[in-house]
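EI: anyone free to look at a 281-residue chain?
SC: sure, send it
EI:
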Amino acid sequence: MGYVILALGLIPSVLLVMGAGQGEYVGIRTRARIAVGWYGTKMRVRKRLEDEQLVSLLRKSGLSLQAYQYHYLRIGLTLVFLLMGVVGLLHGRMLPMLFPLVVWFGLEYRQPFPMHYGFLALQKQAALERDKAVYLLYRLLLQEAVAFHTRPIGVYDMIRRQLHRVPVLRPFLERCLHDWVDDPAAALQRFGEEVGTSQAKALAHMLMEIEEAGVAVALDVLQTNLERFRADRIAAFRAHLNTRSILATALTMLGLGATSFDLMVIIQIYSGALMGATVGG
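SC: here you go
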């Protein structure tokens, strides 16, 4: 009888232990599945926020925004206009409901949406500023090579000494110096590609030559390309003047057109009033 009672007590205990073990195993599997799903979602969101295309567009456009900041700005503006649309809808106006769609697609940076071409326009303006800075950096490096001709210093030190003098290029140069230890040639090539102008790539190529051949040839390499850089700067300046003259001409024509339109309106009003007075008389 005692064995029966013992068996009756053991069987439920074993079942409870087994059930608890299975429940714990199921719980672990569930938590693991949730963790994997959350990690996958987080990685997809991070990949979206760190889109290389957007990073490149922002960097080449000269904007200080980070990719995730641009996404947050886009989402925030869309939500604001969505709220305005809902308020308008409550007052019987349907048109404001289109505003969030306009904002969302208007700030899409991929082709063929408008913001992509806005970034391209900003890149052109930023490229002009960077070319000025590249030419300034080139002249500063040339002065360094002349000043230290008898005891030349390395390319790394030449660049580091000029960081504060070219603030437009400073982020690019700092990344270049950061990667210098691993591979100077790759760091310089990346600098030219990130700045994205022909003069930056030419300067990067010159510095590669100096780094590979030795700092003793720095003055010769830099002086050899002096005329080329001058010619590029003169061509860029002339192109800038031509653009300004075209813009000024267009604005002048618009002004003349608006003035002519106003004169025609005034003449028509005066003629109408005169004819009305004649008929009335």
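EI: The CA atoms of residues 18 and 162 lie 72 Å apart.
SC: 👍
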